[in-house]
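Q: What would this chain look like folded?
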Amino acid sequence: MFELTLELADEHGLAVRAWLEPSRELLRARGLPALDHDFLDSFALDVAGKAEAYARALRELPPGLSEWAVHPGLGGRASQAADPDGWRVRRGDYEFLTSPRARELLREEGITVLGYDEIRRAWTERRRGRSR
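A: My prediction, written as C-alpha cells:
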C-alpha cells in the first residue's frame, strides 16, 4: 500500500509523511526526506504544563528531521462549541507557538522550522534529479 501511495504522490507532485520506521527507511533509501525521530502530537500532551513540555522538547530536540503535529486555534466560542474537549489543546498550542519564548528557544537552539512546502520542494527536486 505504501508503494502505491508513493506512486500517487509522485504523479501528483506531493510529499508523503511516514511515521513507521520501515516506511521511513524506504524513503531514505530513495533519497527522500523522512523523519529521523518519532513525531510529537500536541493532543498527547497535558494541557496543564504544555508550554513547559514544549520548551523542554525544544531544548532536547535531537539533530535531524522531526515532526510536531500542532493544532493551534484561538479557542473562541465557535471552537469551544465545535470541539468541547480539544479547544484547550488548540489554544495552548497557539499561545506557545506565537510566544516570544518559543521564538527565543528556536533561535537559541538553532532550530529551523519547516513546513510542508519545503518538504514537497525537496521531493520535487529529487524527482527531477531522477528523471534526468
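Strands lie at 40-41, 68-69.
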